[in-house]
Amino acid sequence: MRSSRSSAEGPSNGALRAVESSRDTASIEPFDDVREPGVAGHADSVHRVNGARIKSGSANVSGGVQHDATHDTTRDSSHDALNEPLSPDDPLAPLPFNPYKGNRGLTRAWHAMKNSLAGFRVAIREESAFRQELTLAAILIPCGLVVPVDPVSRVLLLGSVLLVLIVELLNSSVEAAIDRISLERHELSRRAKDLGSAAVMVALGMCVMTWGVIVGPLVVGWVRAWL
Fold first, then answer.
1. Any known ligand binding at 132?
2. Where do Polar residues bias regions lie (predicted)?
3. Residue 49 near residue 62, CB atoms below 8 Å
């Protein structure tokens, strides 16, 4: 009876061991590292797993894989951002080549003077407001030169007249640029032109105030002396 029981349990125990062995073999994935941490070559297997970006059964290895993947993704994105070309609207983008900016020294000064004279000619020919202000300047500048005042007051008198001409030229340039963009009626175009006209009015007011404060008392004294 004992021999028959042992003989009966022998095949059953062998079958159970075979089933457990097959389960253990099936639970091991092909790329899992099944060696102990102390076994030589374990670092090579981890390195190979990280290089293949395969999640291992070990928690440390999987954490290393995730950390490496995040680090590589950040590094690739930063590298692409550095190598990405700047758009034309970017303020750091290089300006397009301008053939009119290649002059240097006396050549540049000569071309600048010719362009300035051309601007004066256009303003006199096309801008009636500039012609009127230039006529006023032709009267006031000689008066400012002969009026008996101190040098500082003389500079203020002449500077206020020249300031009106400067602001009028800038206003004319703004109007020309707006008309170059579009001739249609637009709220922003009207606002830009009105602001330029307001700047001219401020310059004229400053000119009148300067001449009234400096030359006004002299004129009143001359009139009283003549009467």
1. yes
2. 1-10
3. no
Of the candidates 29, 84, 168, 187, the residue annotated as catalytic is 168
Residue 30, domain member (yes or no): no
Binned at pLDDT 50, 70 and 90, residue 110 comes out as confident
Output the domain CATH number for residue 168: 1.10.287.3610
Residue 200: give the domain boundaries. Answer: 116-226
User: How would residue 34 be classed by pLDDT, with cut points 50, 70 and 90?
Assistant: very low
Is residue 66 part of an annotated ligand binding site?
no
Residue 14 lies inside a defined structural domain of this protein? no
Q: Is 187 a catalytic residue?
A: no
Question: Does residue 106 form part of some domain?
Answer: no
d(CA 172, CA 178): 10
146 φψ region: left (φ > 0), alpha (ψ -120 to 50), beta (else): alpha
130 is in an annotated binding site: yes
Does 185 belong to an annotated binding site?
yes
- Whether pTM > 0.85 for this model: the answer is no
Count Cβ neighbours within 10 Å for each residue of 67-87 and write b for 16 or more, e otherwise.
Answer: eeeeeeeeeeeeeeeeeeeee
